[in-house]
Structures are given as C-alpha cells and as structure tokens.
Design a protein that fits this description.
Elements (H helix, E strand, L loop, with lengths): L11 H16 L11 E5 L2 E4 H9 L2 H4 L4 H24 L6 H27 L2 H14 L4 E10 L2 H12 L4 H8 L6 E5 L6 H7 L12 E3 L2 E12 L5 H26 L5 E2 L5 E2 L4
Antiparallel strand pairs: 1-2, 3-4, 3-6, 5-6, 7-8
Helix pairs in contact: 1-4, 2-4, 5-10, 6-10
Length: 283
C-alpha cells in the first residue's frame, strides 16, 4: 500500500456550493461588470444579471477548471438570490449605520487592498521564464531510481491470500480475483519507488521480475497482499506540464517572501513590548 494521505473526495457540485457560499457575500456583482444585460433574477425589483454570475465564475479559476458555466449557473443562482435577500434585509435594518459595520468596513477595505496589491505583484513575478528556471533546476538535480508497476489484492487473513495464490497458479485471472476479493479498490498501484510503499510491500515487489506474482502472502499493517509486478523501469523527471502548478506555487511563495523583504527594507519599523518598551531591531 502506498504511504499516502487519504482525504475526502468532494463532488464537483459540492465544490461549487462550498466555494461560492464562501465568497458570495462579497463577490455578488451588482455593477454587471461583464456587460451581459440578460436578467438572471429579480429580488424585490432589484436585478441580478447573468453577467454578475459570469464575473464571479471568471474570478474563480478553481471553479472554472472543474465545471462549465451552465452548471455553475444552475447550482449557484439561488445562492446569489439568498445573498441579495440578506443584503436587502441588512439595509432595512440600517446595519450600515452601526459602529461595528464601520469598523469592519475599514478592515475589509484594507484586506482587499492588500489582496489586490499582492496578487498584482505576484503575477508580475510568476513568469513562464521563472517557472522554467525552477523546472530546469529540478531536472538537473533529479536522480533516477528504479520504479515498479504493480497491482495487488488485499485481504484480511493469510488463508484467503494463500487461496488466491493457488487460484492464480491454476490460471485464473488476476483482475477478476481482485474484483471479487480485494479490500482495496485501488488494485492498480501504477509506478512507484521503494520509498513510496511500506517496507514489507516494497521488499516483496522489488525482488520480483516483470510478470511475476508473489508466491506467498505479503503481510503489512494493512493486511495480506498478493502482488503482481507488471513492469520495472528507471524513473524519469516529470514533464513540465505535470509539475507546473506546483512550480508556480513555489515561485509565488518565493515572490511573496521577496515582496515582504523589499517592503521591510524601505520601511521604518518600531516595535514595542506590552510594557511599552522599544524592541531592539533583530529581536
């Protein structure tokens, strides 16, 4: 079994609802920024345009990458309607005149200014050239390792694993046996290096030749495995397109650190303890 973190799988629809609900309170566009005059809804006479939803969709790449606009529209129109209803109720309650609203408004403006400033600066620094530079560094330092491509059948006891091995020896199909018996639905493990698997599994898999299956059950913390090795090869660096998102994130993190360094270098900063004493520079 791979030493991997198992997380929850979220459906595309759930992603839409969660993502939109998280930003709709400050991302419902009433200015119709996209220019689309088609009406999406009217709430007490106030119009929400199709263009409002298009702009929100365009502003969130993580949603665009997962669902088409028509699905986004169908699943989120009521979120926009509800948001507008709440805002109208807040206006009727004169929330915008309260001290707490004014206080949070100042914070919200500062947060938005910071966000847009950092986005602009980071976009300037995260260039194709910088990403390629990081990729070239990765490939130059890459050390090839042996990789094995394998499938496995996982069961909860040794006797059952031995029975499966006997059935394989009699000519039964590995995939059919896996479908009928394996506790792990991820039968095909793809290519992996020794370090990617628990030690007992790796020791067995890497001692076998292409086309061989384990003649005795392999016990790990997950249960008993019957392993089929399908291929072996020397590992190669991943293609640029495969690692580009991670590389862009790394360049962005480096850019943010540089931005803060530049800002601090040109600023006069005085920090104080709770007692009001000046904290010496570098402390």
């Amino acid at each position: 079994m791979k030493k991997r973190i198992v997380g929850f799988t979220i459906s595309a629809v759930a992603v839409i609802v969660v993502a939109v609900a998280s930003f709709v309170s400050f991302k419902v566009y009433s200015a119709n920024a996209s220019g689309d005059k088609a009406v999406a809804a009217k709430i007490n006479g106030e119009v929400i345009y199709v263009g409002d939803l298009k702009q929100s969709y365009a502003d969130h790449q993580q949603i665009k990458d997962r669902v088409p606009f028509d699905e986004f529209y169908a699943k989120t129109l009521d979120v926009f309607v509800n948001s507008k209803l709440v805002y109208q109720a807040a206006q009727a309650a004169r929330i915008e005149e309260t001290p707490e609203y004014q206080r949070q408004l100042v914070t919200a403006k500062e947060d938005l200014a910071r966000k847009l400033f950092l986005e602009k600066k980071v976009d300037e620094k995260v260039t194709d050239a910088e990403v390629k530079k990081l990729y070239d560094e990765y490939t130059s330092k890459f050390e090839s390792q042996k990789e094995v491509k394998a499938k496995h059948i996982l069961v909860d006891n040794e006797a059952k694993a031995k029975e499966i091995i006997k059935r394989l020896q009699s000519g039964e199909d590995f995939d059919k046996l896996a479908k009928e018996n394996s506790l792990d639905q991820a039968v095909d493990l793809g290519y992996f290096t020794k370090e990617m698997m628990v030690p007992e599994f790796s020791q067995a898999a890497f001692s076998m030749n292409k086309g061989q299956y384990s003649k005795t059950p392999v016990k790990t913390e997950f249960g008993y495995h019957v392993i089929l090795v399908e291929d072996a090869r020397a590992s190669k660096p991943l293609e640029l397109k495969e690692v580009e998102p991670q590389l862009k994130n790394m360049v962005a993190q480096q850019a943010i650190a540089e931005i803060f360094d530049d800002l601090r270098k040109d600023a006069k900063i005085e920090r104080y303890t709770l007692e009001g004493e000046l904290i010496p520079e570098g402390k």
